[in-house]
Amino acid sequence: MLIHTTNTKLRVTRAVKSAVTAFALTLGLGAHAQDATSPPAQTNAAVLTSPKTAKAANRALAKKVRHVLSRTKGLSPANIYVNAVDGMVTLTGSCISDDQITLAGNAAGKVEGVSSVNNRLGIRTPR
Fold first, then answer.
1. Both 56 and 112 in a single domain?
2. Domain that residue 25 falls in
3. 79 touches 93 (CB < 8 A)
4. SS (H, E, C) 2-35
5. Which residue of 25, 66, 120, 127 has the fewest CB atoms within a 10 Å radius of its CB?
6. Does a structural domain hold residue 103?
7. Number of independent structural domains in the chain
8. pLDDT digits over 60-75, tens only?
């Protein structure tokens, strides 16, 4: 009786593995069934990037924005903090005037790779 149960479990396991393998192969073959005249499929870059690559890209974009802010005439970026996530930049911290807040938001929006700016800067009050 023990041998019969073990053989049955083994057969079921093999059958399940075969079915899963066949399904995977079917999906794989279906993805490559395009002919040479059809245009290549569009790929979503966000899906293909690893979390590590995305994090590095976010850091690089934030650094680029900080660099532009530091080069912007009439802006004191000492208390401006930049966070970037998938092209969306958030500015936090403080400036000494409304004009500088607007200037920082406009400068950040012009940086290549920035899709939107969330300007959360406030006015720094003297102590």
1. yes
2. 1-32
3. yes
4. HHHHHHHHHHHHHHHHHHHHHHHHHHHHHHCCCC
5. 127
6. yes
7. 2
8. 999 999 999 999 999 9
